[in-house]
Amino acid sequence: MSQLLISDANILIDLEDGDLITELFKLPFQFQVPDMLFVDELEAGHGYLLEHGLQLGELKPESMAEVEILVKKYKQPSRYDCFALVLAKQEGCPLLTGDQNLRKAAEQENVEVKGTLWIVEAMITHQVITIGAARMAYKRMEQKGRRLPWDIAEKRLCGIEISL
């Protein structure tokens, strides 16, 4: 069974803007979002993600209570971000996010965090895309206004090139 990764909405939108959604689901991972996050933030414009393999995760009642605690504890991550954080905690798996506030909250809650750069690099490592395709995807993301550390992304791609 492949590793489960819980995603927030912004990672999926980054990858969509980079035209990497099909490639995402070629990775040897299961991708899941909280069902409520999907219904309220993704279903209308991104419902097709389910056809690609995105799974919906359900929070247990005790996890829903934890969401309420985290919403009060952390002012910045949204309620939906907290759903993703608590689902990752509940399932004991990494959280995918590019949101700095959610990343900080996850780290304080001892949840492993991975971001868009990690996903793109996993696509290269698993030979789903080439380094050139990654650069083109980053360019599309940047052109569509996505906010990533572009200089770090390029340095990391150069590091992969050297190691290949």
Descriptive account of the structure:
By secondary structure, this protein is an alpha/beta fold. Helices cover 62% and strands 11% of the residues. The chain is built from ten helices and five strands. It has a five-stranded parallel sheet with strand order 3-2-1-4-5. Helix 5 packs across helix 6. It is globular and about 45 Å long. The relative contact order is 0.17. The mean pLDDT is 95.
Unreliable stretches covering 5 or more consecutive residues: none
Q: What is the residue-averaged pLDDT?
A: 95
According to DSSP, the number of beta strands is: 5
Helix content: 55-70%
- Biggest β-sheet, characterized? 5 strands, parallel
Which band does the percent of strand residues land in?
A: 5-15%
> Strand sequence of the main sheet, in spatial order?
3-2-1-4-5
Query: What is the element string, with H for helices and E for strands?
Result: EHHEHHEHHEHEHHH
| Large-scale geometry | globular
The count of helical stretches stands at 10
Estimated structural class? alpha/beta
Indicate the radius of gyration in whole angstroms.
Answer: 16 Å
Distance between the termini: 28 Å
